Protein backbone atom coordinates (compact mmCIF):
# COMPACT_ATOMS: atom_id res chain seq x y z
CA UNK A 1 0.00 0.00 0.00
CA UNK A 2 1.27 3.50 -0.72
CA UNK A 3 -0.14 6.97 -0.33
CA UNK A 4 0.99 9.92 -2.42
CA UNK A 5 -0.09 13.33 -1.15
CA UNK A 6 -0.82 15.98 -3.78
CA UNK A 7 0.32 19.07 -1.91
CA UNK A 8 -2.05 21.82 -2.98
CA UNK A 9 -2.72 23.71 0.26
CA UNK A 10 -6.47 23.87 0.82
CA UNK A 11 -7.04 21.56 -2.15
CA UNK A 12 -4.49 18.92 -1.07
CA UNK A 13 -5.57 15.28 -1.31
CA UNK A 14 -4.32 11.72 -1.05
CA UNK A 15 -3.82 9.21 -3.82
CA UNK A 16 -4.14 5.78 -2.18
CA UNK A 17 -2.69 2.84 -4.10
CA UNK A 18 -3.71 -0.48 -2.67
CA UNK A 19 -4.73 -3.86 -4.08
CA UNK A 20 -8.37 -4.61 -3.28
CA UNK A 21 -9.20 -0.98 -2.44
CA UNK A 22 -12.39 -0.91 -4.52
CA UNK A 23 -13.85 -3.57 -2.26
CA UNK A 24 -13.20 -1.29 0.74
CA UNK A 25 -14.14 2.01 -0.93
CA UNK A 26 -16.87 2.97 1.56
CA UNK A 27 -14.32 3.18 4.36
CA UNK A 28 -12.67 6.13 2.55
CA UNK A 29 -15.76 7.61 0.91
CA UNK A 30 -18.16 7.69 3.85
CA UNK A 31 -16.44 10.72 5.45
CA UNK A 32 -16.94 12.61 2.17
CA UNK A 33 -20.64 11.76 1.87
CA UNK A 34 -22.57 14.10 4.19
CA UNK A 35 -25.96 12.49 3.47
CA UNK A 36 -24.64 8.96 3.25
CA UNK A 37 -25.08 9.02 -0.56
CA UNK A 38 -22.64 8.87 -3.45
CA UNK A 39 -23.27 9.44 -7.18
CA UNK A 40 -21.27 7.10 -9.38
CA UNK A 41 -20.49 8.03 -12.98
CA UNK A 42 -19.14 5.14 -15.02
CA UNK A 43 -19.17 3.69 -18.53
CA UNK A 44 -20.85 0.58 -19.87
CA UNK A 45 -17.69 -1.54 -20.07
CA UNK A 46 -16.51 -0.65 -16.58
CA UNK A 47 -19.98 -1.20 -15.15
CA UNK A 48 -20.01 -4.69 -16.68
CA UNK A 49 -16.43 -5.61 -15.70
CA UNK A 50 -16.00 -3.92 -12.31
CA UNK A 51 -19.42 -2.60 -11.25
CA UNK A 52 -20.17 -5.48 -8.90
CA UNK A 53 -16.90 -4.92 -7.02
CA UNK A 54 -17.73 -1.26 -6.49
CA UNK A 55 -21.29 -2.03 -5.41
CA UNK A 56 -19.90 -4.39 -2.79
CA UNK A 57 -17.25 -1.85 -1.78
CA UNK A 58 -19.83 0.88 -1.32
CA UNK A 59 -22.13 -1.15 0.91
CA UNK A 60 -23.35 1.05 3.72
CA UNK A 61 -23.65 4.04 1.40
CA UNK A 62 -26.71 4.76 -0.72
CA UNK A 63 -25.63 5.02 -4.36
CA UNK A 64 -27.05 6.29 -7.62
CA UNK A 65 -25.31 5.47 -10.90
CA UNK A 66 -25.11 7.30 -14.22
CA UNK A 67 -23.70 5.14 -17.03
CA UNK A 68 -22.34 6.52 -20.30
CA UNK A 69 -21.21 4.75 -23.50
CA UNK A 70 -17.53 3.76 -23.40
CA UNK A 71 -14.99 5.59 -25.55
CA UNK A 72 -13.48 8.94 -26.38
CA UNK A 73 -16.63 10.06 -28.22
CA UNK A 74 -18.26 10.44 -24.79
CA UNK A 75 -16.06 13.45 -23.98
CA UNK A 76 -18.69 15.64 -25.66
CA UNK A 77 -21.14 18.46 -24.93
CA UNK A 78 -23.98 15.97 -25.39
CA UNK A 79 -22.63 13.56 -22.79
CA UNK A 80 -21.80 16.40 -20.41
CA UNK A 81 -25.43 17.54 -20.63
CA UNK A 82 -26.64 13.96 -20.16
CA UNK A 83 -24.54 13.43 -17.03
CA UNK A 84 -25.36 16.77 -15.40
CA UNK A 85 -29.08 16.42 -16.21
CA UNK A 86 -29.15 12.90 -14.77
CA UNK A 87 -27.32 13.92 -11.60
CA UNK A 88 -29.73 16.81 -11.07
CA UNK A 89 -32.72 14.56 -11.73
CA UNK A 90 -31.35 12.16 -9.12
CA UNK A 91 -31.41 15.03 -6.62
CA UNK A 92 -27.69 15.51 -6.01
CA UNK A 93 -26.96 18.28 -3.50
CA UNK A 94 -23.94 20.56 -3.68
CA UNK A 95 -21.87 18.86 -0.98
CA UNK A 96 -22.51 15.31 -2.17
CA UNK A 97 -19.69 13.42 -3.91
CA UNK A 98 -19.54 12.23 -7.50
CA UNK A 99 -17.45 9.08 -7.94
CA UNK A 100 -15.69 8.94 -11.33
CA UNK A 101 -15.38 5.17 -11.77
CA UNK A 102 -13.62 4.33 -15.02
CA UNK A 103 -10.84 5.33 -17.36
CA UNK A 104 -9.70 8.78 -18.36
CA UNK A 105 -12.84 9.44 -20.39
CA UNK A 106 -15.10 8.96 -17.38
CA UNK A 107 -12.64 10.87 -15.16
CA UNK A 108 -12.38 13.86 -17.48
CA UNK A 109 -16.13 14.01 -18.14
CA UNK A 110 -17.35 13.36 -14.59
CA UNK A 111 -14.69 15.73 -13.25
CA UNK A 112 -15.89 18.47 -15.59
CA UNK A 113 -19.51 17.78 -14.61
CA UNK A 114 -18.45 18.10 -10.96
CA UNK A 115 -16.66 21.38 -11.69
CA UNK A 116 -19.76 23.04 -13.12
CA UNK A 117 -22.62 21.29 -11.36
CA UNK A 118 -24.14 23.73 -8.87
CA UNK A 119 -20.91 25.75 -9.38
CA UNK A 120 -18.73 23.03 -7.93
CA UNK A 121 -19.39 19.60 -6.48
CA UNK A 122 -16.80 17.39 -4.77
CA UNK A 123 -15.62 14.33 -6.66
CA UNK A 124 -13.45 11.30 -6.11
CA UNK A 125 -11.47 9.50 -8.78
CA UNK A 126 -11.58 5.71 -8.75
CA UNK A 127 -9.57 4.98 -11.92
CA UNK A 128 -9.94 1.58 -13.54
CA UNK A 129 -7.65 1.84 -16.59
CA UNK A 130 -3.86 1.92 -16.35
CA UNK A 131 -3.83 5.32 -18.04
CA UNK A 132 -6.25 6.76 -15.51
CA UNK A 133 -4.29 5.25 -12.60
CA UNK A 134 -0.94 6.68 -13.66
CA UNK A 135 -2.04 10.00 -15.08
CA UNK A 136 -5.58 11.29 -15.61
CA UNK A 137 -7.00 10.67 -12.12
CA UNK A 138 -4.38 12.99 -10.59
CA UNK A 139 -4.03 16.72 -11.12
CA UNK A 140 -7.53 18.05 -11.65
CA UNK A 141 -7.54 18.61 -15.42
CA UNK A 142 -11.07 17.92 -16.66
CA UNK A 143 -12.33 18.42 -20.21
CA UNK A 144 -14.35 17.49 -23.26
CA UNK A 145 -13.30 17.47 -26.92
CA UNK A 146 -14.86 19.85 -29.46
CA UNK A 147 -14.53 20.21 -33.22
CA UNK A 148 -11.78 22.81 -32.77
CA UNK A 149 -9.65 20.33 -30.84
CA UNK A 150 -8.94 18.03 -27.95
CA UNK A 151 -9.74 19.08 -24.36
CA UNK A 152 -10.45 22.65 -25.45
CA UNK A 153 -13.40 23.06 -23.09
CA UNK A 154 -12.79 22.17 -19.47
CA UNK A 155 -11.83 23.27 -15.99
CA UNK A 156 -9.23 22.71 -13.34
CA UNK A 157 -11.11 20.96 -10.55
CA UNK A 158 -9.15 18.82 -8.11
CA UNK A 159 -10.63 15.59 -6.77
CA UNK A 160 -10.98 15.18 -3.00
CA UNK A 161 -9.39 11.74 -3.09
CA UNK A 162 -8.04 9.20 -5.58
CA UNK A 163 -8.46 5.48 -4.89
CA UNK A 164 -6.27 3.25 -7.08
CA UNK A 165 -6.88 -0.47 -6.95
CA UNK A 166 -4.47 -2.20 -9.36
CA UNK A 167 -6.62 -5.36 -9.17
CA UNK A 168 -9.15 -3.57 -11.39
CA UNK A 169 -6.69 -4.00 -14.26
CA UNK A 170 -7.40 -7.74 -14.34
CA UNK A 171 -10.29 -7.05 -16.73
CA UNK A 172 -8.59 -4.35 -18.85
CA UNK A 173 -7.80 -5.28 -22.48
CA UNK A 174 -4.11 -5.67 -23.39
CA UNK A 175 -4.36 -2.85 -25.96
CA UNK A 176 -5.64 -0.51 -23.24
CA UNK A 177 -2.83 -1.60 -20.88
CA UNK A 178 -0.29 -0.65 -23.54
CA UNK A 179 -1.99 2.72 -24.09
CA UNK A 180 -1.72 3.48 -20.37
CA UNK A 181 1.89 2.34 -20.35
CA UNK A 182 2.69 5.13 -22.83
CA UNK A 183 1.95 7.74 -20.14
CA UNK A 184 4.29 5.91 -17.74
CA UNK A 185 7.05 6.07 -20.37
CA UNK A 186 6.22 9.77 -20.80
CA UNK A 187 6.84 10.46 -17.11
CA UNK A 188 10.24 8.76 -17.27
CA UNK A 189 11.21 10.59 -20.45
CA UNK A 190 10.30 13.96 -18.99
CA UNK A 191 12.46 13.81 -15.91
CA UNK A 192 13.49 10.43 -14.57
CA UNK A 193 16.16 8.62 -16.64
CA UNK A 194 16.65 5.95 -13.96
CA UNK A 195 12.94 5.16 -14.18
CA UNK A 196 13.33 4.78 -17.96
CA UNK A 197 16.21 2.31 -17.36
CA UNK A 198 13.89 0.44 -15.01
CA UNK A 199 11.09 0.42 -17.58
CA UNK A 200 13.41 -0.99 -20.23
CA UNK A 201 14.12 -3.88 -17.87
CA UNK A 202 10.64 -4.29 -16.37
CA UNK A 203 8.13 -2.91 -18.89
CA UNK A 204 7.05 -6.38 -19.99
CA UNK A 205 6.28 -7.32 -16.37
CA UNK A 206 4.25 -4.14 -15.91
CA UNK A 207 2.23 -4.93 -19.03
CA UNK A 208 1.76 -8.52 -17.92
CA UNK A 209 0.26 -7.24 -14.68
CA UNK A 210 2.96 -8.57 -12.33
CA UNK A 211 1.79 -7.07 -9.01
CA UNK A 212 5.14 -5.73 -7.73
CA UNK A 213 6.21 -4.22 -11.06
CA UNK A 214 2.78 -2.73 -11.59
CA UNK A 215 2.64 -1.25 -8.09
CA UNK A 216 6.07 0.31 -8.53
CA UNK A 217 5.24 1.77 -11.97
CA UNK A 218 1.95 3.23 -10.76
CA UNK A 219 3.41 4.71 -7.57
CA UNK A 220 6.42 6.20 -9.38
CA UNK A 221 4.26 7.76 -12.10
CA UNK A 222 1.76 9.18 -9.61
CA UNK A 223 4.52 10.60 -7.39
CA UNK A 224 6.20 12.18 -10.42
CA UNK A 225 2.96 13.80 -11.58
CA UNK A 226 1.88 14.88 -8.09
CA UNK A 227 5.15 16.76 -7.56
CA UNK A 228 4.75 18.67 -10.83
CA UNK A 229 1.09 19.46 -10.17
CA UNK A 230 1.98 20.73 -6.69
CA UNK A 231 4.51 23.11 -8.25
CA UNK A 232 2.30 24.41 -11.05
CA UNK A 233 -1.33 23.44 -10.53
CA UNK A 234 -2.75 25.49 -13.42
CA UNK A 235 0.12 25.22 -15.90
CA UNK A 236 1.10 28.83 -15.49
CA UNK A 237 4.84 28.59 -14.79
CA UNK A 238 5.62 26.16 -17.60
CA UNK A 239 6.53 23.30 -15.26
CA UNK A 240 3.24 21.44 -15.73
CA UNK A 241 3.46 21.92 -19.49
CA UNK A 242 6.21 19.28 -19.38
CA UNK A 243 3.47 16.70 -18.75
CA UNK A 244 2.45 17.48 -22.32
CA UNK A 245 5.54 15.79 -23.77
CA UNK A 246 4.34 14.13 -27.01
CA UNK A 247 0.87 15.61 -26.64
CA UNK A 248 0.98 18.40 -29.23
CA UNK A 249 1.52 15.66 -31.80
CA UNK A 250 -0.89 13.28 -30.03
CA UNK A 251 -3.80 15.69 -29.88
CA UNK A 252 -3.42 16.55 -33.57
CA UNK A 253 -3.34 12.83 -34.39
CA UNK A 254 -6.43 12.16 -32.27
CA UNK A 255 -8.27 15.01 -34.00
CA UNK A 256 -7.20 13.60 -37.37
CA UNK A 257 -8.71 10.25 -36.28
CA UNK A 258 -11.96 12.05 -35.37
CA UNK A 259 -11.57 11.36 -31.62
CA UNK A 260 -12.56 7.79 -32.35
CA UNK A 261 -11.11 4.75 -30.64
CA UNK A 262 -9.27 3.85 -33.87
CA UNK A 263 -6.36 5.67 -32.24
CA UNK A 264 -6.33 5.59 -28.45
CA UNK A 265 -4.97 8.58 -26.55
CA UNK A 266 -2.07 6.52 -25.20
CA UNK A 267 -1.24 5.23 -28.67
CA UNK A 268 -1.17 8.77 -30.03
CA UNK A 269 0.99 9.78 -27.07
CA UNK A 270 3.45 6.95 -27.81
CA UNK A 271 3.85 8.12 -31.41
CA UNK A 272 4.01 11.71 -30.13
CA UNK A 273 6.84 10.85 -27.73
CA UNK A 274 8.86 9.30 -30.54
CA UNK A 275 8.14 12.32 -32.76
CA UNK A 276 9.11 14.78 -30.01
CA UNK A 277 12.46 13.01 -29.62
CA UNK A 278 12.96 12.82 -33.38
CA UNK A 279 12.18 16.53 -33.73
CA UNK A 280 14.62 17.23 -30.90
CA UNK A 281 17.29 15.36 -32.85
CA UNK A 282 16.34 17.23 -36.01
CA UNK A 283 16.84 20.52 -34.17
CA UNK A 284 20.24 19.48 -32.89
CA UNK A 285 19.11 19.27 -29.28
CA UNK A 286 19.32 15.58 -28.54
CA UNK A 287 21.53 12.63 -29.36
CA UNK A 288 20.12 10.35 -32.08
CA UNK A 289 20.91 7.36 -29.85
CA UNK A 290 18.45 8.64 -27.23
CA UNK A 291 15.66 9.00 -29.80
CA UNK A 292 16.49 5.55 -31.13
CA UNK A 293 16.28 4.13 -27.59
CA UNK A 294 12.84 5.69 -27.10
CA UNK A 295 11.55 4.29 -30.39
CA UNK A 296 13.00 0.86 -29.60
CA UNK A 297 11.36 0.68 -26.19
CA UNK A 298 7.97 1.79 -27.48
CA UNK A 299 8.02 -0.79 -30.26
CA UNK A 300 9.34 -3.49 -27.92
CA UNK A 301 6.26 -2.98 -25.75
CA UNK A 302 3.90 -3.09 -28.72
CA UNK A 303 3.36 0.67 -28.96
CA UNK A 304 3.54 2.80 -32.11
CA UNK A 305 6.59 4.99 -32.62
CA UNK A 306 5.62 6.79 -35.83
CA UNK A 307 2.65 7.99 -37.83
CA UNK A 308 3.09 4.99 -40.10
CA UNK A 309 2.86 2.62 -37.11
CA UNK A 310 -0.50 4.24 -36.32
CA UNK A 311 -1.68 4.03 -39.92
CA UNK A 312 -2.07 7.84 -40.04
CA UNK A 313 -1.46 9.17 -43.54
CA UNK A 314 -2.11 12.87 -42.83
CA UNK A 315 0.20 15.48 -44.30
CA UNK A 316 2.49 17.58 -42.11
CA UNK A 317 0.49 20.67 -43.05
CA UNK A 318 -2.77 19.12 -41.96
CA UNK A 319 -1.38 18.00 -38.59
CA UNK A 320 0.39 21.31 -38.03
CA UNK A 321 -2.89 23.09 -38.83
CA UNK A 322 -4.54 21.17 -36.03
CA UNK A 323 -1.67 22.04 -33.67
CA UNK A 324 -2.46 25.71 -34.19
CA UNK A 325 -5.37 25.37 -31.74
CA UNK A 326 -3.16 23.86 -29.01
CA UNK A 327 -3.67 25.43 -25.58
CA UNK A 328 0.08 25.95 -25.14
CA UNK A 329 -0.11 28.89 -27.53
CA UNK A 330 1.06 32.37 -26.58
CA UNK A 331 1.37 35.31 -28.94
CA UNK A 332 0.24 33.09 -31.78
CA UNK A 333 3.10 30.62 -31.28
CA UNK A 334 2.64 27.06 -30.01
CA UNK A 335 5.10 25.89 -27.36
CA UNK A 336 6.55 22.41 -27.95
CA UNK A 337 7.86 20.08 -25.31
CA UNK A 338 11.19 18.80 -26.62
CA UNK A 339 14.05 16.93 -24.99
CA UNK A 340 17.80 17.28 -24.62
CA UNK A 341 17.97 13.59 -23.82
CA UNK A 342 16.10 10.93 -21.88
CA UNK A 343 14.71 12.53 -18.72
CA UNK A 344 15.56 16.03 -19.95
CA UNK A 345 12.37 17.51 -21.38
CA UNK A 346 11.94 21.26 -21.66
CA UNK A 347 9.51 23.80 -23.08
CA UNK A 348 10.66 25.20 -26.43
CA UNK A 349 8.83 28.37 -27.48
CA UNK A 350 10.92 28.79 -30.57
CA UNK A 351 9.45 26.20 -32.90
CA UNK A 352 7.67 27.31 -36.08
CA UNK A 353 4.67 25.23 -37.13
CA UNK A 354 5.93 25.37 -40.73
CA UNK A 355 9.13 23.64 -39.61
CA UNK A 356 7.10 21.02 -37.76
CA UNK A 357 5.02 20.40 -40.90
CA UNK A 358 8.21 19.87 -42.93
CA UNK A 359 9.65 17.64 -40.25
CA UNK A 360 6.50 15.48 -40.23
CA UNK A 361 6.57 15.12 -44.00
CA UNK A 362 10.22 14.15 -44.00
CA UNK A 363 9.65 11.79 -41.06
CA UNK A 364 6.86 10.14 -43.02
CA UNK A 365 9.24 9.83 -45.98
CA UNK A 366 11.71 8.08 -43.70
CA UNK A 367 14.37 10.80 -43.66
CA UNK A 368 14.43 11.50 -39.97
CA UNK A 369 17.93 12.09 -38.81
CA UNK A 370 19.92 14.66 -40.75
CA UNK A 371 23.62 14.13 -41.25
CA UNK A 372 24.47 17.08 -39.06
CA UNK A 373 23.63 14.99 -35.97
CA UNK A 374 23.29 17.00 -32.82
CA UNK A 375 25.12 18.93 -30.22
CA UNK A 376 24.14 18.06 -26.69
CA UNK A 377 24.53 21.51 -25.19
CA UNK A 378 21.85 22.62 -22.78
CA UNK A 379 19.97 25.61 -24.13
N1 LIG B 1 -7.04 14.74 -17.11
C1 LIG B 1 -5.81 14.33 -17.38
O1 LIG B 1 -4.84 14.75 -16.75
C2 LIG B 1 -5.61 13.30 -18.44
C3 LIG B 1 -4.38 12.64 -18.53
C4 LIG B 1 -4.22 11.66 -19.51
C5 LIG B 1 -5.28 11.32 -20.34
N2 LIG B 1 -6.47 11.97 -20.19
C6 LIG B 1 -7.62 11.59 -21.02
O2 LIG B 1 -7.96 10.25 -20.70
C7 LIG B 1 -8.63 9.66 -21.80
C8 LIG B 1 -8.08 8.28 -22.05
O3 LIG B 1 -8.30 7.50 -20.90
P1 LIG B 1 -8.29 5.90 -20.99
O4 LIG B 1 -7.12 5.47 -21.76
O5 LIG B 1 -8.49 5.41 -19.63
O6 LIG B 1 -9.54 5.60 -21.91
P2 LIG B 1 -11.04 5.18 -21.57
O7 LIG B 1 -11.57 5.93 -20.44
O8 LIG B 1 -11.76 5.21 -22.85
O9 LIG B 1 -10.86 3.67 -21.08
C9 LIG B 1 -10.33 2.74 -21.98
C10 LIG B 1 -11.30 1.59 -22.26
O10 LIG B 1 -11.15 0.61 -21.25
C11 LIG B 1 -12.41 0.34 -20.61
N3 LIG B 1 -12.07 0.07 -19.21
C12 LIG B 1 -11.57 0.92 -18.30
N4 LIG B 1 -11.26 0.28 -17.17
C13 LIG B 1 -11.58 -1.02 -17.38
C14 LIG B 1 -11.45 -2.20 -16.59
N5 LIG B 1 -10.90 -2.18 -15.37
N6 LIG B 1 -11.90 -3.35 -17.11
C15 LIG B 1 -12.44 -3.42 -18.38
N7 LIG B 1 -12.54 -2.33 -19.17
C16 LIG B 1 -12.11 -1.15 -18.67
C17 LIG B 1 -13.25 1.54 -20.87
O11 LIG B 1 -14.60 1.24 -20.83
C18 LIG B 1 -12.78 1.96 -22.27
O12 LIG B 1 -13.44 1.18 -23.23
C19 LIG B 1 -8.43 10.60 -22.97
O13 LIG B 1 -9.60 11.30 -23.23
C20 LIG B 1 -7.35 11.54 -22.50
O14 LIG B 1 -7.45 12.80 -23.09
C21 LIG B 1 -6.65 12.94 -19.26
O1 LIG C 1 -1.96 16.63 -16.39
C1 LIG C 1 -1.38 17.24 -17.31
O2 LIG C 1 -1.02 18.41 -17.17
C2 LIG C 1 -1.13 16.57 -18.60
O3 LIG C 1 -0.71 17.21 -19.55
C3 LIG C 1 -1.39 15.10 -18.68
C4 LIG C 1 -1.69 14.60 -20.09
O4 LIG C 1 -1.30 13.25 -20.13
C5 LIG C 1 -3.17 14.63 -20.42
O5 LIG C 1 -3.39 14.01 -21.65
C6 LIG C 1 -3.85 15.97 -20.36
O6 LIG C 1 -5.24 15.83 -20.47
C7 LIG C 1 -3.42 16.91 -21.47
O7 LIG C 1 -3.78 18.17 -21.08
P1 LIG C 1 -4.04 19.36 -22.09
O8 LIG C 1 -3.95 20.57 -21.23
O9 LIG C 1 -3.00 19.30 -23.15
O10 LIG C 1 -5.39 19.18 -22.64
ZN1 LIG D 1 -2.07 12.27 -21.92
From TrEMBL:
Molecular function GO terms recorded: 3-dehydroquinate synthase activity; metal ion binding; nucleotide binding
Keywords assigned by UniProt, alphabetized: Amino-acid biosynthesis, Aromatic amino acid biosynthesis, Cobalt, Cytoplasm, Lyase, Metal-binding, NAD, Nucleotide-binding, Zinc
Residues given in the record as NAD(+) binding sites: 104-108, 128-129, 141, 150
Cellular component annotations (GO), alphabetically ordered: cytoplasm
Annotated catalysed reactions: 7-phospho-2-dehydro-3-deoxy-D-arabino-heptonate = 3-dehydroquinate + phosphate
Domain 3-dehydroquinate synthase N-terminal span(s) in chain numbering: 66-178
Keyword Cytoplasm: yes
Main location: cytoplasm
A GO biological-process term: chorismate biosynthetic process
Domain annotation 3-dehydroquinate synthase C-terminal: ranges: 180-329
InterPro entries for this protein: Dehydroquinate_synthase, DHQ_synth_AroB, DHQ_synth_fam, DHQS/DOIS_N, DHQS_C
The protein's Enzyme Commission number: 4.2.3.4
Cofactors: NAD(+); Co(2+); Zn(2+)
Residues that hold Zn(2+) according to the record: 183, 247, 265
Pathway the protein contributes to: Metabolic intermediate biosynthesis; chorismate biosynthesis; chorismate from D-erythrose 4-phosphate and phosphoenolpyruvate: step 2/7
Compartments, as annotated in UniProt: Cytoplasm
Known function: Catalyzes the conversion of 3-deoxy-D-arabino-heptulosonate 7-phosphate (DAHP) to dehydroquinate (DHQ).
Similarity comment: Belongs to the sugar phosphate cyclases superfamily. Dehydroquinate synthase family.
Protein name, per record: 3-dehydroquinate synthase
Organism: Allosphingosinicella ginsenosidimutans
Gene that specifies this protein: aroB
